[in-house]
Amino acid sequence: MKLFKLNTHTRGCNKSYDADLVLNPQDHPTAKVGDVVEIYAPDDENGTHLLLQITELNEQSKTGRNVISIESCIAIAFKMRSYSNVVMRIVNPADVALDSIEITFKDQYMGRSEMWRLKTYLTNTCVYVNKKIDYNDMQIRCQVYEMWSQGERVASGVITDDTKIVFRSSTSMVYLFLQMSSEMWDFDIHGDLYFEKAVNGFLTELFQKWKKLGCNHEVTIVLFSRTFYAAKSLDEFPPHMRDCLQQDYKGRYYEDFYRVAIQNERNDDWCTVLAQLRKLFTSYQETVLRYHERQNMRIPLATNSTATQGNFLEVLNISLNTFEKHYLDRTFDRTGQLSVVITPGVGVFSVDRELTNITKQRIIDNGVGSDLVCVGEQPLHAVPLLKFHNKDTTLTSADDYSLPHWINLSFYSTNKKIAYSSFIPRIKLPLLSVVDETDVEENERNFLSCNQSEYIHNSLFDYDAYDEQIFQPLPAQSTCSLQRVVRAKKTSVPSFETYAYRNNDWENLTPTKIPSLRRKMSDPDIHHGTSGMLATLTDTANLSESLASEKNARRAIVSIAPIVRPGRALINPFDPSHVTIKLTSNRRRWTHIFPKGPTGVLIQQHHYQAVPAKAVPAVSYNRQLQHSNSSNSNNNNNNNDQEEQYDQLSNHSLISQSKSFSSQNFAMGEEKSDFFKRRNTSLVNAATAANVPNLTATQAKSYLWGATGEQEWTPAITTGVDWKSLSIPACLPITTDYFPDKRSLHNDYVISDYTLLPDDVNLDYAKSRAVYRKPLSTEEVCKEIVSQRLAQGFQLIVVEEKQPSSTSCCSASGSCAPGSNQTTSAVLPVKTSCELNREYLLSIGRIFHKISLSGSVITVTGYRPRHPYPPINVDYRYRFHAPQHETYEISGVNFTTEKLENFSWNHMDLYICTRGDVDYPLMESLKYWRFRMYLLPRESMVNKIVSFGCQRCDIFTDAVVDNTREQIEDFIRLIENVSKLKRQICRKARQHDTPTPRITEKNHNLLNPPQQSINARPKPDPSRISRILPGTDAATAAAAASAVVPRDDQDDGFPVDIKFSANATLAEMFEAMKHPVNGVGFFTQTQSLPSCTFISYDALMWLKARLTNGRHPLDLLEAMRKERMICHASGDWNQPIVPGFVFYYVVQQDRNAKDYAPPLNDYSAFVNEWLEIELQGCSFLWHDEPAPTNVPNFLRETPAPQSWREYCKSKRVCRKSHLEIDVNQKSDRMEWGHVKHHTVMQPGFAFELVVEWVTSSGPIVSDLISGWMRKANHCGYQLVSVPADPMAEPFTEKSDPLRGPIFIPLCVTFLPNGAALFDEFPEDSRADRMLFLQEAILARFGFMPCVLEEKFTQKKDLPKEYQYVHCTGNMFALIRCASNKFQVESPSRQEANVTRCVYGHTNNTNVPKKVGFLWAWNHMIPNKKWKALTINNSADGELFQLKMLKDFREFCSNSDQRLANFWAHSQELKRKSLKFEYNNNNNDEPKII
């Protein structure tokens, strides 16, 4: 064994030492790049083995003979000392291949298609624990967290094609829901309140783990509960209570309450939040139960529900309503979604079947992690357990249960010890009280409740004897087709009926009915004579007879049983393994995040298996030994500790608990035959059990219980806390392993297919396209088509090809290798040597896609269910209290299942093929990603409040300096940057290293060939570049990002060389405009722009500076256009001159010049390429106009229009243009998107930009937008991200259910003697005047109008809505203005609830009309930026945002007569204006301009 001396090096200090492993090529003549080597200490062969990959071999990296050098951090981590001797040998990568690997990442958005690309990038590479991975092509940074190989946790290994990669995010969106059911006020076995156990115990520990792992989740914490009212009819409730009441299946009235404690916050230290939760707890129950109490009003008695009866599924759906809109409000610093419900219960919930189906489908389809944490004690039956509402209250009705595999369950127990006992009770004992027989029947029928009536206190017969008869071996003649029915037939016993009858508790005691008994009970004769039958059964003499007859009836009845409930057995929560279910893609959706245990089954690391009762001594000793390290007291899963010592992770070591996670470990030693005997009965053809060689692999059938479906439930399994899932939640895996077999595909699915020929499509489009773009190759299209499906929640199906086996074997599906999907389908990935023959299988729910690439043809085959689930819609109403709200307000939301089969994949695929052509626009149904922003001018007044502590916030209109000119100039500069344009002549000459004489020479020759040398001209300012187009080089873009300079605005940007005389002709002006140095200034040559292009704003300002008389520059330009001197840059003569950032070009050019570029002559193609923005409200900059009046708009005779929408030239609010996203050309994929923008920019208004994409990577889009934000800052603006639905009003389609605007009423009775406002004006103008008054108030507080697209045509009875954003971007306000009656708001009859409902959802015409504002927070503002606005020297670190709200409320309520003073001041301005007007026109009527 050859030994090598070990050296260490630091990466990057020397070019020769830039790899993890450096060795001398002469020592290893057979080694080549890519080989994997194993390094270990010679004296510790069973210790830690380090695997590294040779990434470079060159003579320069010689280390000396027999010396190897590894990176110092790796050496420290693996405890390898410098200068020690080690063994190094080349190993076969297949021998050290990893089964699964977990990778963590933080503070970035990684979409599912990026995960797939990263997986491809990592394949065939060697990794070790904590290795940092930088994937520069996609700008992704991540770290290796944990690896599993052959059932063991290992410290290093090789990623192969078959390795399952699990992505875990340290920055997710986490919703923590605390169920404030009645048990929260009960005490646990240690004497703590369950609330204390949840908050002081579980949450405290969770937050500590977050801190230790460096998590930075965005957290929302909600307290929720259900209140029942003791009432028989709606008439018993006062009117103000009826809006939100709902009725359950038993006819009970209830209301659900939600208290949002923390909303979208990130914290380094969560201790303050825990204190806040404790404070809320003290008053929660009283507030909720007494919420409706009013003086002299009687309301029905309110009680808090138990955990079982609570609104558990509703809570999950509320979080899903937010999570499924992840593509609308995309942020680039987090990935992943997690919903955690913390309950004091034991994991049993009484639920509606329809709502369960919705929840299950939505959770699985959306790929959202759902965790349930119980702080109650774990019961002796399988949980989580959903008990379906049973509307049938007859004696014969059986309860039906569900064991949801889509909920990850944890049980939290404190590590407290009781001195006198180590026993932990698993059953909650009933309270001791005398029960009156008459009251027993009143008791609620509830399985596993703690009412005393629901416990059996005495027994009528020998249960053990009965059990022996029931569970005797099956009759030999039973056929395999009946096996499943027999297995389902387990609990229900005739003698139980006596107990059930006495206690009126039939359904609670018999969760699984024997089919035979169900058959008897459904017989009308027996049904009517039930009491008589039960009476005879109570006689002990008849008992054994009935048992005997029951025993004899078993065989005969079995075949009839399916008639009662065809094909479906009821579940027994105490023995769920007796019912197995057929494998489906839903069942396997999350399984690839679980590692494989030693026996080849998937394991859950927080499940602990106790020693089985009949275990062989050796096995039981092993199990105990394996558990010696895992402390049951706090279920501490050591795997989560990053500081894990690597010596525990040796090649042969395993974290102790993991071997015992699965009860299927029974399949070893002497128990093997017993294991097969027990398991085979659940398979369809159990008669051929002898042919099943290995049952520990994935089955054709699956257990009901557990997330994996491979672990059998036993009472001995203890569930701990899945800290890993709660700290670094896993993203939905990109692979799965289920595909239906041929028979199922034929019978159950509708098949459709279509072919794509990208080369032909691109050829057609290349001919018709005005602008050339490099098309995607067929292979790129195929990869992108797969990417899009992954991004929409599909998973790649990894199918292992089966070995040929006998028919019986196949049908049992037991012979497949672990992890295979046991399908006999021929639809398998084609692995051929030819690179252009590929096949991908993908699935989501019951929808499967096969994408085949063969040469230049892509075939997409879709399989959708022949009988799809019917769409379900549940309307849900509730009360919720958000931060800064004053009451629990009504809200309503719909829970609906999405019909995934209706997604228009054909349209999406053609969109990709044509590279986003206008023929295939992005539609709302395609769920494309978007990032919405407002461009707002930076406001100095904020500083006055934050830094200098100004007491009042209505100071934003105090500034008198008009900076419109600067704002417009900065805006033009910014849009040039965004549009990636470069000028020939800059506004402010600045020397720079990037010469552009060649380009400027071109255009000079086109216009005036004989004039002076171009080199005398100042060089262009690279701060005026920004939009990249395919022809622009990366160096230009880099220069743009780095070379933005402050601009001196004292001159108007151009050297003023001449002044035009009053009678100057158009031709003279035109010639001067074309001058290369002193002319208007053209853009340098750019693809799709004609040569000699300028923008209309520049031309207007250029003319203004040179005209001496009152001629209008806009009229002159329009005259030039009519004379065909200039034209719109698209070549469309019909486009008039529009002032703003709108392109025009000089028509008269030398067309034979080599650099002449003609226009596109296609207007629609041109506007798809370029942002064109009209300027409004600033025409005084280029034409002298009379000064506007300073009379407030609401007091003018003819008020100015509210927004530019009515009079903009394009008649459109927004327009879309193509956007090249990969500006720095880093990505290895073709990336593009679209930018939607306002068509008009008006100073004082917010300007909207929305980036939209499907074929781009999160980090690349983030790079583009952060570049824009930096440029906006340089240009005196801020680009603020805003939500798609800022106000989040209830009852609107995409509203966030836990958000809502705050209603701030406006006092309108402040005039003396109660006089009405605007009495002196005509009545039909008063509603508008009220709007303008409110607008003026908002302006005082720094709000700017936002012009919105009309989503639908305004109906006459619907009020108009006007939205505003604060100049900091932190807040939004909305004014709703109806005709004549001022404000209209909700259908709520309570004034306090005006915020939560939208006008138009009620027929009630007596709604009180109130004037006011809706106020909402911008939750898209990054947390650090939000908290940065803390007011200096404020007592308790008051935030600027909260001070604004408080001061705004005070102003609107006329506190200190502030509103009255504002009104008086406005009236004074009007009087002065009238007086001034009167003096100017003595004989004329006074008139307001």
Fold and architecture overview:
The protein starts with a strand and ends in a 9-residue tail after the last helix. A hairpin with a 2-residue loop joins β32 and β33. It contains 36 helices and 52 strands. The strands form 12 sheets. Strands 14, 15, 16, 17, 18, 19, 21, 24, 35 and 36 form a 10-stranded mixed β-sheet that branches. Strands 2-5-1-6-3-4 form a 6-stranded mixed β-sheet. A 6-stranded mixed β-sheet has the order 29-31-32-33-34-30. The protein is α+β, with helices and mostly antiparallel strands.
Summarize the entry for a quick read.
This protein has 36 helices and 52 strands.
List the helices and strands and how they pair.
Layout: E1 3-9, E2 21-23, E3 36-40, E4 50-53, E5 67-71, H1 72-77, E6 85-91, E7 100-105, H2 112-122, E8 125-128, E9 132-135, E10 140-149, E11 152-154, E12 156-159, E13 164-169, E14 173-179, H3 194-213, E15 218-229, E16 246-247, E17 253-265, H4 271-289, E18 302-304, H5 312-323, E19 337-343, E20 348-351, H6 353-366, E21 369-374, E22 385-388, E23 401-402, E24 408-411, H7 437-440, H8 463-470, H9 483-488, H10 496-503, H11 506-509, H12 515-522, H13 524-528, H14 530-538, H15 540-558, E25 580-582, E26 607-609, H16 617-627, H17 672-680, E27 701-703, E28 717-719, H18 723-727, E29 735-736, H19 742-748, E30 749-756, H20 758-768, H21 778-791, E31 795-797, H22 807-812, E32 837-844, E33 847-854, E34 857-865, E35 873-881, E36 889-896, H23 905-913, E37 929-937, H24 941-946, H25 964-978, H26 997-1007, H27 1034-1042, H28 1066-1073, E38 1093-1095, H29 1096-1106, H30 1113-1122, E39 1126-1128, E40 1140-1141, E41 1143-1146, H31 1163-1169, E42 1173-1175, E43 1214-1220, E44 1232-1238, E45 1240-1241, E46 1247-1253, H32 1258-1274, E47 1277-1281, E48 1302-1305, ...
Parallel strand pairs: 1-5, 7-13, 14-15, 14-19, 17-35, 19-21, 20-22, 21-24, 29-31, 42-45
Antiparallel strand pairs: 1-6, 2-5, 3-4, 3-6, 7-10, 8-12, 9-10, 10-11, 15-17, 15-18, 16-17, 22-23, 25-27, 26-28, 30-34, 31-32, 32-33, 33-34, 35-36, 37-46, 37-47, 38-41, 39-41, 40-42, 43-44, 44-46, 48-52, 49-50, 50-51, 51-52
